[in-house]
């Protein structure tokens, strides 16, 4: 079993090594600067066009359902 004096000495040595390591490499942490955000590739018109396509498909599906229900009641 390790003596308390040896454990204390190892702890102090580990803390000093960590402190020296942290102080000797501060520039490596901030070496990379973040790049600026890319400019948007669309102005929202593609989103509007997608919504329009979904609404047109919904209208087509509702028209089909209404007309198929109308035909089944008249026969």
Task: Describe the model.
The chain contains three helices and no strands. With 75 residues, the protein is mostly helical. The chain has a domain of 31 residues. 0% of the residues are buried.
Key features?
75 residues; mainly alpha; 3 helices; 0% strand; signal; transmembrane
Can you give me a brief rundown of this structure?
Keywords: Membrane, Signal, Transmembrane, Transmembrane helix. With 75 residues, the protein is mainly alpha-helical.
Q: Helices and strands in order, then pairings?
A:
Layout: H1 4-24, H2 26-29, H3 45-74
SSE order in H/E notation? HHH
Q: What spatial form do the alpha-carbon principal axes imply?
A: elongated
Q: How many separate helices? A: 3
In whole angstroms, the N-to-C terminal distance is 96 Å
What value does the average pLDDT take?
Answer: 78
Helix content: over 70%
Sequence stretches where pLDDT stays below 50 over 5 or more residues: none
Radius of gyration: 35 Å
Estimate the strand proportion. under 5%
Major sheet description: none
Give the tally of β-strands.
0
Structural class: mainly alpha
């Amino acid at each position: 079993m390790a003596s308390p004096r040896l454990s204390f000495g190892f702890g102090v040595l580990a803390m000093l090594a960590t402190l020296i390591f942290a102080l000797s490499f501060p520039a490596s942490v901030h070496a990379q600067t973040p790049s600026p955000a890319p400019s948007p590739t669309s102005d929202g018109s593609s989103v509007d066009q997608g919504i329009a396509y979904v609404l047109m498909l919904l209208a087509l599906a509702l028209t089909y359902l209404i007309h198929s229900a109308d035909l089944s009641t008249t026969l």
